Amino acid sequence: MTKPELPEDLVEEILCRVPATSLKRLRSTCKRWNRLFNDDGRFARKHLDKATKQFMVLMLTNQYSIGPVSIDLSRTIPSVEVKAEYSLIDPQPEYSAKLDIERVIHCDGVLLCTFWSNMSRIVVWNPLTGEQRWIRTGYRSQSGRAFNIGYCQGDNKSCNKSYRVLSCYCDIHNFEMYEFNSDTWRSLGDICPGWRLRPHVSVSLKGSTYTFAEDETKTPPNLSLLKIDYSTEKSVPVPLPCDQGIEYEESTLSVVREEKLALLSQRDEKSKTEIWVTNKIDETTKAVSWSKVLAFDMSPDLRISDFGSFLLDEEKKVLVYCDTLFEDDDYHRDIIYIVREDNNKVIEEEFVADKVDLCSQTILNYVPSLDKIKQAKAQGKRKRGDD
Length: 387
Fold this sequence. Notes:
This protein is mainly β. The protein has 2 domains: 1-52, no CATH class; 53-366, Neuraminidase. The protein is built from 4 helices and 24 strands. The chain has helices at residues 8-15, 20-26, 31-39, 41-50; strands spanning 56-61, 66-72, 79-82, 101-107, 110-115, 121-125, 132-136, 145-151, 163-169, 175-179, 184-189, 195-205, 208-215, 222-229, 234-238, 250-256, 260-266, 273-281, 288-296, 309-313, 318-328, 331-342, 345-352, 358-366. The strands form 6 sheets. Strands 3-2-1-24 form a 4-stranded antiparallel beta sheet, with no helix packed on it. The chain has a 4-stranded antiparallel beta sheet with strand order 4-5-6-7, with no helix packed on it. Strands 8-9-10-11 form a 4-stranded antiparallel beta sheet, with no helix packed on it.
């Protein structure tokens, strides 16, 4: 006797609530399911709306690959362990070698990666589905050049976002945008007039890039936060909590559960290190409010830097901070610094990252997604600057 099959709409309702990582294993169950996961953009949007989000900690390993990391805080002394490594192989047949990842930006389930040895190409990559989009950056000067990723807010209602890559420089007010649909770079001119960017200190949140910048119209220049909108191709300043007459010497950014910005700041060597989180970012009025989550004294030989990165569990009040500390010209050490509250007491633990096979300056929360990456046409247009 043949077992009755569930109606297709009921099967879809069940599957769209299954975590993304589990769906990856289910894709080979039957052809119908595989088509649903891979070809039906409508299902991807439905899954994004209804499935519980998963959060994975990713870090760069000492082999310059991406590694999922397990951080166990239940022990008296927390443990940090690399679970696996995701490598990127150069797709050009004449090379076919592993590329060393330099920098990673996370945007809604996809990663933008740049490389140490080859700045002529970057890649947008979905580690869950394995999809990759390799992008030539042209032969312009690479010194001080940084890349960020976002998408148009108007495209957020569609299943496949129209991703875009932004190219910018620290000292040159010249911005370029790469569009996936046209497979071309185009000049935007100066979209941040009067500001000197720190483009390597930036995060992506809800399709926009948030980056530190200095107001060049003031002496000395004031540190502020800029939001770069990929729909309007304009920037707007975002008030920092330290805009209330307080000037912080070192600051870095993170994202909390894809909903909020987090700021880690230290005014000077003698000041407490503070963590602030946005309560609300009003897209209409641009009003922003912040709350202080944690304040603590780092150990005497530690100090945060613009090149460090961190993750924050706002609910549990746990901070994981990673950085490279330079003792002198010939010696440095990579550290992982964990700060947590226990019975209203701040507890700090320090790890030497080399002992857990990690590079310490990149840590991020990755949210697995079924989002598809639009591929370039086989006979795409050539970009300006590739001649």
